[in-house]
Amino acid sequence: MKKLLNTLFVTQPDVYLSLDGDNVVLLKEKEKLGRLPLHNLESIVAFGYTGASPALMGYCAKQDISITFMTMNGSFLARVIGKSKGNVVLRKSQYRISDDETLSAEVAKNFIVGKIFNNKWIVERMTRDYALRVDIEKFKEVSTQLSNIIQEVRKTKDLDNLRGWEGQAAICYNKIFDQMILQQKGYFYFHMRSRRPPLDNVNAMLSFAYTLLANDVASALEAVGLDAYVGFLHRDRPGRASLALDVMEELRGVYADKFVLSLINRKVINEGDFSQKENGAVIMTEEARRKFLGAWQKKKQEKITHPYLGEKITWGLVPYAQSLLLARYIRGDLDEYPVFLWK
């Protein structure tokens, strides 16, 4: 299993990244802010209009260290990676499946089954752990609805129908998401998902978490030789890492949603950590992003037992494990893609 290394998050704007020997140097207006050895890093994520020297980008590309550039509010801009390590047979098999909507649906429905199953168990955990604070009857009703939708998804052989059932499951799950917010209710609430732009504090955090997760999944897919931009459920669109969005479906709730809820309910993030733009967009402050990213790195270090592999790995390696299993399925080494099922 791959070793989980560190990610360097650069949250200050206008920081220039340069190379000095085997180290990355952080410069702001020619003042040195820091110097870190690159052998401890697996990726660099820079926020704001940060520059990076060609020498650093070349070194990182050779060492399989990805560099991702994002806006200050966490929107993806660009990603620098090295040569593809995938063998041509694996990628050609991936492309053949993607070109056939029936075959794509067979793979895609596993991603959606995993997503709905994991969301169902988030709901079940809430009824068990917070029976006096949530509407048990409503939560049980949603859990039953999600179970029924899973059965329909398993029978689906069409991508459009699959998207329809996924949408129904999302409606069921989202209508009780606000009840999972147990603290700071005056400042953190969820009425509906708003993406571009996020219109409240919770949506701002969810969008940030999904962007980080998508980046981690894309890196994992490229590491095992798959093309992160050619998906099965999410169809081809220039600049979109469609396969990364596919694989992260099963991890959205159990990885990103639960993480965001924990930051709110443990009061790690509070009402002072956000600002609102003139167009209504809500963004996290620089200090909030620091707290968020620090907690994200700690989350990635937590260990779990992988439900299919049966071995202990860190949360940060789950995207890599799923990417590896997907590659094995596409090669024909597995009869079915083993979706990540959490309880």
Descriptors:
9 helices; alpha/beta; 12 strands; globular; endonuclease; 4-stranded mixed beta sheet; single chain; 343 residues
What does this structure look like?
The chain is α/β, with parallel strands linked by helices. 48% of the residues lie in helices and 16% in strands. The protein is built from 9 helices and 12 strands. It has helices spanning 54-62, 88-99, 101-129, 136-155, 159-174, 201-223, 242-265, 286-301, 318-331; strands spanning 6-10, 16-20, 23-28, 31-37, 41-47, 51-52, 66-70, 76-80, 274-276, 282-284, 303-305, 312-314. The strands form 4 sheets. A 4-stranded mixed beta sheet has the order 1-5-7-8, sandwiched between helices. Strand 3 and strand 4 form a beta hairpin. The longest helix has 29 residues, at 101-129. The chain is globular, with a radius of gyration of 20 Å. The two termini are 23 Å apart. The relative contact order is 0.12. The mean pLDDT is 88. Homodimer, forms a heterotetramer with a Cas2 homodimer. Belongs to the CRISPR-associated endonuclease Cas1 family. It comes from Virgibacillus halodenitrificans. Mn(2+) binds at residues 166, 234, 249. Keywords: Antiviral defense, DNA-binding, Endonuclease, Hydrolase, Magnesium, Manganese, Metal-binding, Nuclease.
